[in-house]
Amino acid sequence: MDLDDVTSYSKVDRDDMLSKILKFPDALVEAYDEFLNIDFPKEIRIGKISISYGYPSNIVICGMGGSAIGGDIVKYWLMERIPIHIDVVRNYVIPSYVNERTLALIVSYSGNTEEALFCLNHALRRKAMVITITSNGLLEHYSSMFGLPMFKLPKGFPPRAALPYLFTAMATAMEKIGIEIDVHRHINNAYEVLAHLREAIKPEVPLEKNIAKQLALSINGTIPLIYAYVTYYPAAFRFKTQLNENSKYPASCEVLPEMNHNGIMGWEARDLIKDLLAIFLIGGDEPKEVLTRIEVTSEIISDIGAKVMKINAKGTDLLTRMLYLIYLGDFTSYYLAIARDVNPTPVPSISRLKEELNARLSTKKRIDKSLRELLSE
Question: Which domain holds residue 155?
C-alpha cells in the first residue's frame, strides 16, 4: 500500500492502532496526573500475612510482553541514578532475595497473565510490598480483595499500546513510596520532544519528509538486527517486539559492547547476509568507547557487504532520548504493517498459545486456588 494514501489506512488498520500510537505523548501526561491521586496504606493484612509499606531495599517488576517493557525503561533509566537494585522478572518465579523490604510491582495489563499472577502469589507469601498495575481480570480482582495498592489503567488497549500508562504507573509508584526520581519533570520533558516527533512522522507527512515511513520501507524485505548500547536496550527490544507484533515481522536485537564479543561474527556468513539489515540506535550520550565501537562495528558490517542504518535520538535527558527511539520505532512498525497490508492489532499466534496452555494446564484455576488460600492460611 502507498504510505501516503492515508485515507486507505483504515482498510488495513481495522482496529485503529493508529489512534493509540498518536495518543502516546498525551497519555504520559494524563497518566501522571491521574495516578497522583492514588494513596498507599502503611500496612495491610491478608489472612495471617502482614505487609508494611516503606522505603524499599530492592525492586522487582514482574510482567510479560507489552506489560513488562515499561519495567525495562524504569530499570535502565534509573540504573545510574538511584542506589536501589531493580530486576525485571519475566518468569513464573521471583528471585530468592525478595522479602518484606522488596517493592514488588506486579504488572499485567489484562490482569490475567499467568506468569504475573504466579509472581503475585510468591511475592505476597514473602511479605513483599506489593503494588499492582492492571486494567482488569484476576489481578484487579485480587488487588481489591486483598486491599492492595492498585494503579487502575484505562481499558481498551492492546497491552503494548498501553506503554505510556504502564511506565508512568511504575515510575509514579516508586516515587510515591519515597524514591526521589522527579517523574513530573521528566514526563514533561519527554512530552515536548515526543509531541514534536509526532508532528514530523504522522501519516499526513509525506514519505519524502517522514523518517518513520522511510525506515519502514527500508526494513521491508529485509530481516533487521537492531543494536544499541546496553543502556538503550529497552528501545532496541521494544523496536524488535513492535516489529514482531504490529508488523508480524521477524526481527532480533542485541546490545553493545556485548555483541562485539560474539554477535559480530555472525555477519561473516557472507552467503546468508544479503537480506539482513543492521540498525544502530544511538542515544548520543554513550561513552566514547561505545560510540567508537558503534562506528567500527558498522564499518565492518558494511565492508562485508551488508546494509547498515543509524538512527539518532533527540532529547536533553536519558528518558526522553529512550522514549524518542521507542516512539519512532512504534510508528515505523505501524507503517511497515500498513505497507505489508497487515492489521497491526491482532496477535493470533499469541492468542492461540494462551488458549492451548490454559486448556492443557488449567493454570489459572491453580493460581486462583492458591491465592484464595492466603485468606485462610
Answer: 17-181
Strands 150-152 and 129-134: parallel
Residue 359 domain-assigned? no
pTM value > 0.85: yes
Locate 328 and state its grid cell: 519512532
Both 102 and 220 in one domain: the answer is no
The catalytic position among 43, 48, 208, 261 is 261
Looking at residue 82, the DSSP 8-state letter turns out to be -
Total structural domains within the chain: 2
Instruction: Work out the number of other CB atoms within 10 angstroms of the CB of residue 146.
Output: 21
Task: Select which of 85, 141, 202, 354 is catalytic.
Answer: 354
DSSP category for residue 105:
E
Instruction: Let me know if 100 is a catalytic residue.
Output: no
249 found inside a domain: yes
pLDDT at 181: 96
As a whole number, mean pLDDT of residues 50-77 equals: 97
Alpha helices in 126-230 (DSSP H): 137-146, 163-176, 183-201, 211-219
Question: Is residue 354 among the annotated active site residues?
Answer: yes
Q: Which helix (H) or strand (E) holds 278?
A: strand 276-282
124 lies in the same domain as 48: yes
d(CA 135, CA 153): 5
- Residue 120: C-alpha distances to residues 93, 175, 285, 373 (Å): 9, 21, 37, 13
Please tell me whether the peptide bond between 257 and the residue prior to it is cis, using omega within 30 degrees of 0: yes
State which amino acid sits at residue 344: P
- For residue 58, the cross-strand partners are 85, 102
One domain, residues 24 and 166: yes
Segment 96-141, tens digit of pLDDT: 999 999 999 999 999 999 999 999 999 999 999 999 999 999 999 9
Among residues 64, 31, 41, which one has the least CA distance to residue 129?
A: 41
From 245, 248, 254, 286, active-site residue: 245
What residues have CB less than 8 Å from 128, skipping those under 6 apart?
A: 51, 60, 98, 99, 100, 102, 103, 104
- Closest alpha carbon to 326 in 240, 254, 229: 240
Average pLDDT estimate for 278-300: 98
Instruction: Say what the pLDDT of residue 228 is.
Output: 99
Whether residues 116 and 263 share a domain: the answer is: no
- The pLDDT tens digits of the residues spanning 317-333 come to 999 999 999 999 999 99
Active site residue 261: yes
